[in-house]
Specification:
It is a single chain. The chain is an all-alpha fold. It has one domain. It is 93% helix and 0% strand. The chain has two helices and no strands. The longest helix has 28 residues, at 2-29. Keywords: Membrane, Transmembrane, Transmembrane helix.
């Protein structure tokens, strides 16, 4: 149970790091298509994180 929780958190952190790298790259490149794509990734990440957080709260 505890190991699963840690694994989920690590996966989420890796996902966040990739998203942050994308954000930094977009600010340098300033491509409109990249910004839209990144915004979609950010929304997906937020939704996934919220879902995971809710599941963990229910388990407690």
């Amino acid at each position: 149970m505890g190991k699963l929780l840690i694994r989920i958190l690590i996966d989420r952190l890796l996902y966040l790091l990739i998203a942050l790298y994308g954000i930094i790259r977009v600010f340098i490149v300033k491509g409109v298509i990249d910004k839209i794509f990144l915004f979609a990734i950010f929304i997906t990440f937020s939704h996934e994180f919220y879902k995971t957080f809710n599941q963990q709260a229910k388990l407690k």
